[in-house]
Amino acid sequence: MRKILVLALMLSATAVAGAGVPAPIDAVDPMIGTGGEGHVFPGATAPFGMVQLSPDTDTGCQLRECYGHAAGYRYEDPTIQGFSHTHFSGAGHSDLGDVLVMPQAGSEVRLDPGDPRRPGSGYRSRFDHRSEVARPGYYAVTLADTNVRAELTAGTRIGVHRYTFPAGQAAHLVVDLRSSLYDYPGKILWSGLHLRADGTVTGFRETRGWAPGRKLYFAMRFSSPLKGHGFVDRDAAVPYKGFQGPGRGSDAVAEKLGRALEARLDFGVLDAPLEVRVALSGVDEAGAVANLDAEPGGFDAVRARTAAAWAQALGAVEIDAPAPMRRTVYTALYHSLLAPSVWSDADGRYRGPDDQVHVANGFTFRSTFSLWDTFRAEHPLLTLVQPAETTADIVRSLIESREHSPYGILPIWQFAGRETWTMIGYHAVPVIADAYLKGIRGFDADAALAAMVASADYAPYGGLGEYMRLGYVPIDREPEAASKTVEYAYDDWTIARMARAMGRKDIADRFERRAGNWRNSFDAKTGWLRARLSTGAFRTPFDPTAINYGSDYTEGNAWQYSWFVPQDQAGLIRLLGGDRAAVAKLDAMFDYDMSKLDYSHAEDIAGLIGQYIHGNEPSHHVAYLYTYAGAPWRTQERLGQIVTSQYKPTPDGLAGNDDLGQMSAWLVFTALGFYPVAPGSNQYVIGRPFVDRAVLNLPGGKRFTVIADGLSDTNRYIRGVTLNGVAIDRSYIRDEELRAGGELRFAMDARPNTRWATDSAARPFSMSTSRR
């Protein structure tokens, strides 16, 4: 009966969308982006899961050489070191790789990973991509050196391994608590292993890396009883005297504490595959055990539940398109649904930014907030393709993080409840404002606004004190000052928008004034955003093509950042000299001759089209800016250029880091034909569609259909647009129009329509031309 139920669930999760058309879950290819600079992992995870169970191909790199292995796995690598339980999807930096497990077969058990250039020198193994299978919630590979078939699946807080060992050979597992992505010196502060009387192995480790003082606990159970074990400390150094973790409990029969722990687990010769159930917790080992109990069942049952969860999540969008585009877009949607990840335990407990345990009452606490990246398109997409409760949980998590923060501000770049202070801005603010302005509730709006204002007024952070005093961030007091000025100004505008909607005129008026601060760093004489000194002078010498970390800009230069005024593109265009001048400058950006420039020293600069850098976020809205200058057909041309060159259904199919879903969310929106240039405006700027038909199954049961009549490689321009059968001559749609359901229909043509939506009244929102 159980096998019949599991089979039924799996069949329902992979039911075809139509005759001969794969279901969304079958259209996803998790290998896309595992090569090149995509930095995504191919392993098993549930939507927004706490566990990301995936192979690691190289965890021994030195810190400055690890960039290409930020996700643990890199398609080009020839060996697998093991399977660990935590990974980032597409980050430009890393940590994690917790609780690495590696099966071994036979009489010899190696405790070191060995040299990837010397087969057999350690427990790592060679593998062949032809033996790999990667699907949402499932990964499998054959380890060539031991002939062990490894299969992985995952639930929300658990990962399940299944290992099929060669007949007649003894089965062993090595659990290596030393292993970690990015080899920070002295990263492992303390760790522990416990074998309990019922055969459960539990443990913990505290690490210092990207996130300081991160604590993680695990519990592990097996489908076959242990025949033997060994807990080994590979470090003879003096024990760490700080966090000690739990001592041996009354049910523990063995224990080992130390900085460099490994477990050797022996199972003898098995007559069936070995299943290993592993749960994580940020709270304690008891929490990990409870999480293990909260998701019962063996490998097939967990896999079926997660497949059904993925089928439901991916079914939020129905896509008709040629197979390569459909596969690329559905994979992008999949990558958009991996973070922010669950961080609270099944009982609601979680470890917060203050390193204390708290309880999430009535919601699921989430972490992994790459906010500088994801405020742009990732979070706006979630408001459309996920139930409102998901975004409400995200907002409540941000608010609670602020309440438990030692600094009293919202997260900047948080994971595992810990702040990393990575990147700039206070971009939790637009995430909250965008949700509120779209009518999403389920959180305390007054507490949210208070948190937003507190973050914007926290003078010690990133030159904010000088920004509030001078109206800009001075470069002689704070690095990357030009970027910080314009990003703060945008965030301030979203505070004003939410405050205005809540009837808080005092706050709205103050932050609307601050939202105009972008002008204070814009040099109208040269047409560039530039860094200013505290004296008021622009810093010299000035080179708009220069990209250096810690310089005037953040991961970019003047070419990209001079366009970052999402809240007032009309004001920017006027400063540039009007529509023609703006279009000419946009063309100069895309057409720039890069033959004499070398940006190889900057890790995140990838996917170049002239000075347009699609592999990094500051460029993501720029192609849509032709529309603000009255030339929407030029947006349509540039989008075709970007999609064609930056995305493809291959391992190197992402031009740059996916950055926790932002690169992917950009493609999902763009494929549908519109994009949220200014989250908080409640508008989507029309670009052009890249799929023949799509249906958004919206929260609340409404359906919004996009149809592109005559779309082809030749017919790449918009001739006209209708909304619910009525022709529209504006270059945007409103969020409330989309959420009401209906039909957006594009008539495509081989020639650009240079008259459609060009009038100034037809253009998207800008604060200087809006009546609010």
TrEMBL record:
Domain of life (superkingdom): Bacteria
Q: Which residues form the Glycosyl hydrolase family 92 N-terminal domain?
A: 28-281
Name the EC number(s).
3.2.1.-
Annotated GO MF terms: hydrolase activity, acting on glycosyl bonds
What is the annotated signal peptide range for this record?
Answer: 1-19
The UniProt entry, under SUPFAM superfamilies, shows: Six-hairpin glycosidases (SSF48208)
Which UniProt key words apply to this protein?
Glycosidase, Hydrolase, Signal
All residue ranges annotated as the Glycosyl hydrolase family domain in the record: 288-749
Matches recorded under NCBIfam families? aman2_put
Name of the protein described by the UniProt record: GH92 family glycosyl hydrolase
Report the source organism. Sphingomonas aurea
